[in-house]
From TrEMBL:
GO process annotations (BP): cell division; cell wall organization; peptidoglycan biosynthetic process; regulation of cell shape
Catalysed reaction, written as an equation: D-alanyl-D-alanine + UDP-N-acetyl-alpha-D-muramoyl-L-alanyl-gamma-D-glutamyl-meso-2,6-diaminopimelate + ATP = UDP-N-acetyl-alpha-D-muramoyl-L-alanyl-gamma-D-glutamyl-meso-2,6-diaminopimeloyl-D-alanyl-D-alanine + ADP + phosphate + H(+)
Name of the featured protein: UDP-N-acetylmuramoyl-tripeptide--D-alanyl-D-alanine ligase
Gene name for this UniProt entry: murF
Gene3D superfamilies attached to this UniProt entry: Mur ligase, C-terminal domain, Mur-like, catalytic domain, MurE/MurF, N-terminal domain
Principal subcellular localization: cytoplasm
Keywords annotated in UniProt: ATP-binding, Cell cycle, Cell division, Cell shape, Cell wall biogenesis/degradation, Cytoplasm, Ligase, Nucleotide-binding, Peptidoglycan synthesis
Location of the Mur ligase C-terminal domain: 299-389
EC number: 6.3.2.10
Domain named Mur ligase central: residues: 96-275
Top EC class, one word: ligase
Entry's localization field: Cytoplasm
Residues bound to ATP: G97, S98, N99, G100, K101, T102, T103
Length: 425
């Protein structure tokens, strides 16, 4: 079956599933394979649960004409997504970076949805499977789609650009993330800049943080760039107006008070303002959108529990985001401060050095109690308390209490699942 023929079926059954646990009626099930699973084996189960068709690549599992056999299920999903992207008329804004991708994507979406019919990446489905699935949520009347792109190795962003074919792009920053796959921060810059490379090669528009020296250098001489800056006059001026704990920004004599914790969310918010202005969303609508956005899913959430104010930022962590979170936390108020810091993953040979750097950094700050959790933090040299596992810190907290009315920061990589601390505080 050709991609145009498959697309005709998709238009009649416009829901895609790759997991039999989430089968919807009249959907198309793509039987993906991985290192530890084979979706072909679950095709019959998908039909029993209501799927209209099953796309598979192992003929022995095809027992009726509702099974469509292709050479490669994943490649077919990706090609269908590109075909559908071109079938629809939506403009695509691609978004990548080391930190802040998902928050920035959500902010851009709430701003643009004030004027346009939009769709955006759900959660952080931003890889070679998630990007096609996002593209396949675009409707014929969708005007703008915001597509998040993640990567942990070189050439991944370039590949995702071939699938999504973006009209616009924005890179949040170049931080110390996924160093295990990229090798160094220079590798991170090269990998994330693959979005720039695609857009420049195809004469597309780029949104940028003009205060970021790396972005300025990369885009020197490129005409179709639109930036924000706290001071450079030739770019859209957006000023940082404080963060204690919520970030505020000022543009055109209007102060926008977000519900996002920390100065590190300034650039995320500023990007949404810039892109809203580019697409002619009114400033009052931009302000209303950003001020109404409340983060969730363990991303810089403010939680009040007993007498404590907790900043839960446990969705993910890398050295750059950890340092930014700590600097912001150190500057907050006069209440007793307590930090629970969990291991940062995917740092490869830099892991020991980066964890020691964070331990040394936090030792210089005005934070009364610091608890370092995980195998990497357990190896650092520090006067602060260390725990090699979540179970160890759990046992400690069962016997000890924290100062009343504490400000508490919880931050670590996703694999540490430090949100579990909430039940112990």
């Amino acid at each position: 079956m050709t991609i145009p023929e498959l697309h005709s079926l998709f238009l009649k059954s416009p829901n895609i599933s790759t997991d039999t646990r989430t089968i919807g009626a009249n959907c198309i099930f793509f039987a993906l394979k991985g290192d530890n699973f084979n979706g072909n084996k679950y095709g019959a189960q998908a039909l029993e649960k209501g799927a209209a068709y099953v796309i598979l690549d192992e003929k022995e599992y095809a027992t009726s004409n509702t099974f469509i056999v292709v050479d490669d299920v994943l490649q077919t999903l990706q090609e269908l997504a590109t075909y559908h992207r071109n079938y629809c008329e939506a403009k695509i804004i691609a978004l990548t970076g080391s930190n802040g991708k998902t928050t920035t994507k959500e902010l851009i979406n709430v701003v643009l949805s004030k004027k346009y019919k939009t769709t955006a990446t759900r959660g952080n489905l931003n890889n070679h499977i998630g990007v096609p699935l996002t593209l396949l949520t675009i409707k014929k009347d969708t005007e703008i789609a915001i597509v998040e792109m993640g990567a942990n190795h070189l050439e991944e962003i370039a590949f995702l650009c071939k699938i999504a074919q973006p009209d616009f792009g924005y890179i949040t920053n170049f931080g110390k993330a996924h160093l295990e796959g990229f090798g160094s921060q220079e590798g991170v810059i090269k990998a994330k800049s693959e979005l720039y490379d695609y857009l420049i090669r195809n004469d597309k528009s780029i949104f940028m943080n003009a205060d970021d020296s790396v972005q300025m250098a990369k885009l020197s001489g490129y005409i179709k760039k639109y930036g924000f800056s706290t001071e450079k006059q030739r770019f859209h001026k957006i000023e940082f107006f404080g963060a204690d704990p919520f970030v505020k920004l000022k543009t055109e004599d209007s102060i926008i008070s977000s519900q996002l914790v920390g100065s590190y969310n300034f650039t995320n918010s500023a990007a949404a303002v810039l892109i809203g202005k580019y697409f002619n969303v009114s400033l009052p609508d931009i302000k209303a959108a950003i001020e109404s956005y409340v983060p969730e899913n363990n991303r810089s959430q403010i939680i009040k529990k007993n007498s404590h104010k907790i900043i839960l930022d446990a969705y993910n962590a890398n050295p750059t985001s950890m340092e930014a979170a700590l600097q912001n936390f150190d500057a907050m108020g006069n209440n007793p401060k307590v930090a629970f810091l969990g291991d940062m993953f995917e740092l490869g040979k830099s892991a020991a050095q980066e964890h020691q750097y964070i331990a040394d950094l936090v030792a210089k700050m005005n934070i009364e109690k610091v608890f370092l959790i995980g195998e990497n933090f357990f190896e650092v040299k520090t006067a602060h308390q260390k725990f090699d596992s979540f179970e160890a810190i759990s046992s400690y907290l069962e016997k000890e209490s924290l100062p009343a009315k504490s400000h508490i920061l919880i931050k670590g990589s996703r694999g540490m699942a430090l949100e579990r601390l909430l039940n112990l505080l």
